[in-house]
Structures are given as structure tokens and as C-alpha cells.
Amino acid sequence: MKKTLLAAALLCCFSTAYAADQDNASALNPVIVTATRTAVTVDDTLSSVTVITRADIERLQPVSVLDLLTGLPGVNTTQSGGLGQTSSLFMRGTNSTHTLVLIDGVRIGSVTAGFASLEQIPVEQIERIEIVRGPRSSLYGADAIGGVIQIFTRHGSANGGVTPSLSMTAGSHGLFGSQAGLSGGDQHAWYNLNLGGEYTSGFPGCKMGAAEAMAGCFVDDSRDDAYRNWNGSANAGYRWDNGTELAFTWLRSKNDVDYAGSPYGGNDAVNEQRVAGVRLSFSPMEAWGVTLNAGQSKDLSTTYYQGSYYGAYYPLAQTGYFNSQRNQFSWQNDIELTSNQLLTVGVDYQQEHLDSSTGYLADSRDDTGTYAQYQGTFGSNEVQLSVRHDHNQQYGDHDTGAASWGYHFDHGLRVYASYGTAFHAPTFNDLYYPPYYGIPSANPDLKPEKSRSAEVGVTQQLGIWNWGVSAYQTRIDDLILLDPNQNYVPFNVSKARIRGLEGQLGADIDGWQVQGYLTLQQPKDVGDVTADANSGNLLPRRPERMARVDIDRRFGAFGIGTTWYAAGYSYDDAANTHRLGGYSTLALRASWHFTQDWQVEAKLANAFDRDYETVYYFNQPGRTWYLTLRYSPAAR
Q: Where is the TonB-dependent receptor-like beta-barrel domain positioned along the sequence (predicted)?
């Protein structure tokens, strides 16, 4: 950790020395709703947050959500191959199931695996992403140990015009994609409609050769892993003169992805994400705002197999299906006690349901959560307090809380400290998976994983410069592990301790837009050595060091940019026997507005053709190119 502290000191000194101008401060302080469930500026959240706008997405030219998020403070991702293949996201060194993902306020994710399939979310349908790092169970309930990611789909504007949009992309591995949309609105109504699709012939995800295949994906399949996606979204709303607002959102993304497999697990998956939500907000009294939300998300997956296996040919046949459904409702009340004090109280209800070809011992459960939050400003001091009680049909009652304090100095300097508790609910696989030939495969007596997190940080947004440093520690009790000596039955035994430091530094100098991120973390298993053979090891697939730098510049109608990302080594397994080497990649991009409404974009990813792995024995894309034609006129 000495290197961590040294890096933090250098980052602070370097950024403070150049902070001098305040002209662009407002552009660096956007409004965010995920951190507190209320609209506050980033500077008032008392949390570590990152906001990605539509302008950022078009500037960075990502091909997937993972491409967009990788390397942001505290965030690393893994993927078993190319586009559309299974992925995981680890925030602040916690498990992939410890990050809550929302789309337009609706919780998504499989109730069997316990995490959201971000690889299935089309990046062209995204308007904005808010990332909040640190525990948020006191506001959102289960699963928000590492943080919360909220994705907002494309929406219309209130400028009184109609705006069409169109993009077409071609690239390596036979990639072709397109998107078309129409949006508009006025001072009362808004709407947005989008349709899109994508195809790539892909490449073999699993490394070939009998020895390598059996060490990684356990089959030897040399086919290219093709990926197809069809998607659409709709967003509409109306706001009356008295401030009452009714809004509707909808997203559907259907994917067909090939992978190395067998007649038992399939080699082709048809996956679908469906999200729909409706929101009504109004004010019964001047100081009292009410928001009602209802939503449903579905995570649908069906697997098939076709091909030869051990000399025999199998025709196309279904091998299984897992369909998750979440029905959600919330009632939130925001009460303005004074001009500088806000009280928020509310109730959340969620029903989880599973329909599967595998006969689970239970297929549904309910959860009801009640919460309260206080936000107050007293001069230069800010205080945020929150508590929540959850009652779950399976694991009973659970209480969480959080407390944050911040102080604003002159020249945009702010310090903050926070402490919070959180928990992760066991998944349906953990609790209900049926016995295998009479041998138990699940544990209905599992307790939720519980965490305690503390954080201190300092940030400054001063003119053309912005910087921040935060240090944190998270302890997780009752960590759920799989026992290899008992048919991999999950059980509560271990403890994890994660220490980390995050830094970011950005500037806009003479047209050059520069943003750098640094993450140093120590995610370790610290369980009792008598019960946990992996005590003292690093948690799987989480590098201790990550860095990313984005640099962009416009020259009139032309734009250029680059992203450099580096990650240290990690291990693929809890025993720390399969080492994944450190690596770095460089992406180059350019754009040209050849008319007012038309733009062409080009990107070269992994420009030096680095060979690396984020999952043991699974390939990652080598040098790849992408070319996009985009039509985005002003409102007419």
C-alpha cells in the first residue's frame, strides 16, 4: 500500500498545481439521481460517482457497454471471448453479484446467476450512465455492496422539433450494425423511438487444442462464435403545467450467440432482455413530492446444440431454458423540511419468479423494503443519513444504514467521509438448485453476505481542471463459497477484506480533453485458515492495479482521440493457481463532420494486437477496426 499512498500524493500535487480557472465548472457538475434517489449535483452527492453522457459515448466510440465501462475508477470487467459472450463486472473488488444494475429505474439481472448480462445491452440505445461506487443497500436493498450502475435509455427533447437519427457500422470479423431513431417533443410532451441490430461472425472464444480446451471451456470447438442482436427502445412522457409528470420507458434486446459447447450444455444461446417501466410524479403540497414507479424486467435464455460431439452428429435441439422475471413497485415521498433539508421516505416491493427446464425447489420469492433518508446542508457542511429495513420471504429481515459528511472549502475543494452497511441476497442457484442424482446442489439455509464499508475522499472541480482521490475499505462477512468436496454446494464461511484507492484527473486545455483514472486495490480472502483453504489469496479475476487515460481533440470538423488501458495480473481461481498476466491496450479513433448533419467515425482497437486473457484460456479480440457513418441533424 506504500505505492498506493505515493501515487495518491503525486496525483494530488500534480492536479492542485495546475488548478486555476473556473469558467467551465458548471459543465463538470452534472445532476445525478442514482446516488440519493433524488436529483442532486455530482458535487453534492458525498459519494464517488462517474457520469457518462451521450456525447461521451459518441466521442469514445465503444462497441459495447463493457468497452465503455472498463477502466473507470474501481471498475474492471471480464469476458469469455468476443461480442455477446458471457461477461462479469467487478466494482471495487467485490463479486460480480455485488453490483446492482438498473435500467431507467428498473432492477435487471438473472435471479439464477445473480448478476446483469451487460454484454446484452446495446450501447446505441443508451443516453446516459450513472455509476455510484460504494454501498447503497440502505436505499436500494440487496446486492448493492460494491455500488450501483443505472443506465438511461435514449429520450426525446423539449425543443419543439422532430429529430431523426441513423448510424451504420462495419468492422473486423464481419461486423455490421445499424440503428435508426426518431425523437422529439415540446414543453409538455417528449418521445423517442429507436430500432437497431448487429451481427458479427466472431472468432473462437476458447483457445484451441485438446490440452488448452480441457483446461478452459472443457470442449475443443474451433468454430467462430457468431453473434446477432436485434434491439429496440421507446421512451415517452408528458408534463402538465402544475408539474405532474407521467413517463414510460421500454427496452428489448434479443441476442443469438454461439459458443464452444456440448450436447449437455448447448453451443448456441438465444438470450433476451426486456425492461418496461412507468413513472408518475406529482406534488400534493408545495413541500411534498410523490413518485410512483412500476416496472418489470425479464432475463430470458434458451440454449440449443447442433454439431458433432465425440464422433456423433446431433441435430439442432433445445438443451434447456432459464427465464427470470422481476415485478417491481415503489412509492417515494420527498419532503422539504427547510430550503436546505430534505427528508425522503418510501417503500419498495419486488417479486422474483423463475421458469426453468430445471426443476428448482422453489420458483418465486417476495421482498418488501422500507427506507428513509435525510439530507441537510449547514453552511459549508453537508450531511446524509439513510436507513432501510428489508423483509424477504426466504431469508427474513435485514437492516442496513449509511452516514456521510462533506465539507466545502473555497475554490471548489471538497472533502467527504462515509460509512455504510450492505448485503447480498443468495441467488436461486444458491438456495434452490435441485439435487444432482440425489446429492444436494443448493443450501436453503444460506445467510445473506453482509458488508461494512468506510471511505474518505477529496475532490476539486476548478475551471478547466478536475481531480479527486478516495480511499476505502470494505469487509464482507458470510461470504458464499462453493465446497468442491461436497458437490460444490454453497455455504457461508469466509470473509473478504478489500482496500483500495481511486484517483482521477482531467483537464480541457486549448481544445485537448484529457481524463485519467487510476485504481489500486487489494481484494483478499481473509477467512479463517482452519475453514478456508484460500485464506490470504486474492479474489478471482480482480487485478490490483488498473489505469486508463482518454485523450481527445477537435480541429474544426475533424476529431482525434485515444484510450490507453492497463491492468495488472490477477488469478482466475480462488486458489490462485491460474495466473492471468497483466496487459495494456491502446485504441485510436477519429471523426469527420463532412456536413453539418453527417459524420464518419473510425476506430482501431487494441492497436498493437496484444494477446491477453480476462478469463482463463479464453481469447480476447486482437487488433480490430470499426467504421461508422452517423446522421444526427438538429431538430426540425
A: 224-606
Identify the H or E element spanning 499: strand 489-509
- pLDDT tens for residues 368-424? 999 999 999 999 999 999 999 999 988 889 999 999 999 999 888 999 999 999 999
For residue 327, with 0-12 CB atoms within 10 Å meaning exposed, 13-18 middle and 19 or more buried, which class applies? middle
Cβ–Cβ < 8 Å for 500, 74: yes
CA dist., res. 365 & res. 353, Å (int) = 7
Q: Which of 494, 509, 527 is nearest to 463 (CA)?
A: 509
Residues with Cβ < 8 Å from 410, sequence gap 6 or more? none
Output the pLDDT for position 28: 55
Identify residue 514 by its one-letter amino acid code.
Answer: V
Alpha carbon distance 612, 204 (integer Å): 14
> What is the gyration radius of the CA atoms in the chain, in angstroms?
24
CB 430 within 8 A of CB 490: yes
- Measure CA 297 to chain center: 16
Structure letter (DSSP) for residue 425: P
**Residue 459 and residue 498 in contact, taking contact as beta carbons nearer than 8 Å:** no
Contacts of 323 (CB under 8 A, 6+ apart): 298, 299, 300, 301, 354, 355, 356
SS3 200: strand
DSSP 47: S
User: Could you give phi then psi for residue 513, rounded to 5 degrees?
Assistant: -105, 115
Low-confidence ranges of the chain (pLDDT < 70): 1-28, 209-216, 437, 483-487, 635-636
Q: Which amino acid is at 624?
A: T
**Rounded to whole angstroms, how far apart are CA atoms 218 and 261?**
8
27 DSSP assignment: G
* Predicted local distance difference test score (pLDDT) of residue 274: 98
The C-alpha cell at 259 is 459458443
Beta-bridged to residue 228, according to DSSP, are 199, 256
Residue identified by cell 481527445 is: 552
CA distance linking residue 267 with residue 261, whole number of Å: 4
Strand partners, 314: 307
Could you tell me which residues are beta bridge partners of residue 132?
Answer: 49, 148
From CA 498, how far away is CA 97, in angstroms rounded?
A: 16
Q: Which three cell numbers stand for residue 330?
A: 415503489
User: Amino acid identity of 571?
Assistant: Y
Query: Is 102 in contact with 150 (CB distance < 8 Å)?
Result: yes
Strand duo 583-592 + 413-424: pairing: unpaired
Structure confidence at residue 551 (pLDDT)? 98
Nearest CA among 476, 377, 380, 378 for reference residue 420: 476
| Cβ-based neighbours of 589, under 8 Å, separated by 6 or more | 60, 61, 560, 561, 562, 563, 601, 602, 603, 604
**What is the DSSP track for 35-67?**
TTSS-EEGGGS-SEEEEEEHHHHHHH--SSHHH
Indicate the SS3 state at residue 213: helix
Phi/psi of residue 563, nearest 5 degrees: -130, 125
User: Across 286-311, where does the E strand assignment appear?
Assistant: 288-309
Phi and psi torsions of 562, nearest 5°? -150, 150
Distance CA 349, CA 358 (A): 27
DSSP H or E run through 432: helix 428-432
